[in-house]
Amino acid sequence: MIQEKKNIDAPALSYNKASIIEIVDLHKTFGKNEVLKGVNLVVNKGENLVILGKSGSGKSITIKCLVGLVVADKGEIKVFDTDITKLDNNQLNEIRVRIGFLFQNAALYDSMSVRENLGFTLKRHVTDLSPEELEAEILAVLESVGLADAIDKMPSELSGGMRKRIGLARTLILKPEIVLYDEPTTGLDTITSREISELILDIQKKNKTSSIIITHDMACAKHTADRLIILKDGVIHAEGSYEELEKSDDEWVRSFFI
């Protein structure tokens, strides 16, 4: 049993065999800025966990530590029951290939077509595919995000929402067990944001993925979250369902839902 910072909305966390991610006492400092001061969280298999917090609260740093893009100063980070803080780079890469990461800007290669973007990602990790098999995998994942007709387009020809979908397709083509979403609806209009939120749920259901979703978009949070946590001052300040936190006795927590 791991005791959280005392707060009416932040009960003690209980880890169990259903968990796929466990973070214990995570600390990270940049210079004199202590961003994470002992974060404890768990993600259960098949769960969408949404992380909320003001800008600079450490939301993105937390998930970057989770895949080793940022090295934690202290703490245990268990993914698939393996503490990644104790792995060398080759071992870490074996874990990373099972985790999809959707960046804010979709991070597509601008000089490559959609087909080439997806094919490049797949060929880096699966080397024995025939050209026909590669094409079939690309088409299948594009169909799953509703953009099969964009296969020959360049990133510059895509709208913001389409770029997000293609970025997600590139993440899904490796069939990850965990997907990390960093502001998946930022910069999108209301209708497109709703479509991305629906897609996140479709992926959870069809692929049985477990996900962490970093967002400021409360509509996205409400639509996609099985559970939410809120970071404040480098620790988890509150945890619960959308409905529970919306009715919190803590005025600061309620401010997110106004």
UniProtKB/TrEMBL annotation:
Alphabetized InterPro entries for the sequence: AAA+_ATPase, ABC_transporter-like_ATP-bd, ABC_transporter-like_CS, P-loop_NTPase
Keywords for the protein's UniProt record, in alphabetical order: ATP-binding, Nucleotide-binding, Transport
Gene3D superfamilies: P-loop containing nucleotide triphosphate hydrolases
Protein name: Phospholipid/cholesterol/gamma-HCH transport system ATP-binding protein
PROSITE patterns in the cross-refs: ABC_TRANSPORTER_1, ABC_TRANSPORTER_2
Gene Ontology molecular function terms on file: ATP binding; ATP hydrolysis activity
Every ABC transporter domain range: 21-258
